[in-house]
Design a protein that fits this description.
Layout: E1 3-9, E2 12-19, E3 25-27, E4 34-40, H1 45-54, H2 56-72, E5 81-84, E6 87-94, E7 100-104, E8 107-111, H3 115-145, E9 152-156, E10 163-166, E11 171-175, H4 183-195, H5 204-213, H6 217-223
Parallel strand pairs: 2-4, 6-8, 9-11
Antiparallel strand pairs: 1-2, 3-4, 5-6, 7-8, 10-11
């Protein structure tokens, strides 16, 4: 049966679970000075201290990443803000139904009976925004890139990809979280997926098409790294 203990290590608290395994493993669950270590039965405390100490720089990077994610989170209450097209927009929160988030002037008004419903309403708002922005981009670049017209464009929130393209069916899917970033980033993802209509993999020919279409594609791609937590790929 696994056994859990705590080992103080300077400002850190190391929570150790000894169990049947072969190697030491560690994770940093949040910005707090706490790390979780899994260790084989019989591992000496000093060995665990050395294991953690050797990785102190990595631990601080992980804690900083957690802090950054927290600072970038939407705050869906009156006086809060959410990210839309690369800027923070003030939020006005109303109680009630039907649940809806809409842009009114310089703010987003979110009507919902609870926080979970409010998050879903904001997700629908971002889907509408991405749809509205993406369609003219597709129309502009399809003839310029000499690629076939996509058969369909889908929008959904994804945790591992900014976009995807089914080369066989010519269906493209775009991540609705792209509405958090500047529109130049969305344009890059659209061009990336359109290029897959000609080249199903990331061959030199694929990247040549992307680069000839958007010479600043690397700068646009970096925009997707401006949010502290979310980091899908663009495959």
């Amino acid at each position: 049966m696994p056994v859990t203990t705590e080992i103080p290590l300077g400002p850190l608290t190391v929570r150790v679970t000894r169990k049947r395994m072969k190697t030491l493993r560690m994770r940093v669950p949040g910005p707090e000075p706490v790390v979780f270590v899994s260790a084989p039965y019989g591992t000496n405390d000093d060995v665990i201290r050395g294991f953690v100490t050797e990785r102190s720089n990595w631990i601080e990077r992980q804690r900083a990443a957690h802090r950054s994610r927290a600072s970038q989170a939407d705050r869906l209450e009156t006086g809060g803000a959410l990210r839309l097209w690369g800027t923070w927009v003030a939020v006005e929160r109303l109680d009630g139904t039907p649940a809806r988030a809409q842009i009114l002037g310089d703010r987003v008004v979110v009507r919902a009976p609870d926080d979970a419903t409010a998050e879903r309403a904001v997700a629908r708002l971002r889907a509408r925004e991405v749809n509205q922005a993406a369609l003219p981009i597709v129309s502009r670049y399809v003839p310029r890139m000499a690629v076939p017209e996509p058969t369909t464009i889908r929008y959904r929130q994804m945790s591992t990809r900014w976009g995807s393209c089914n080369h066989a069916t010519r269906a493209i899917t775009l991540n609705t979280l792209l509405a958090r970033y500047p529109e130049a980033a969305l344009e890059y993802v659209v061009v990336h997926e359109l290029a897959h209509l000609h080249h199903p993999n990331h061959s030199p020919e694929f990247w040549a098409l992307v680069a000839s279409t958007l010479p600043d594609h690397e700068l646009r791609r970096r925009l997707l790294r401006s949010d502290g937590g979310f980091m899908p790929s663009v495959l």
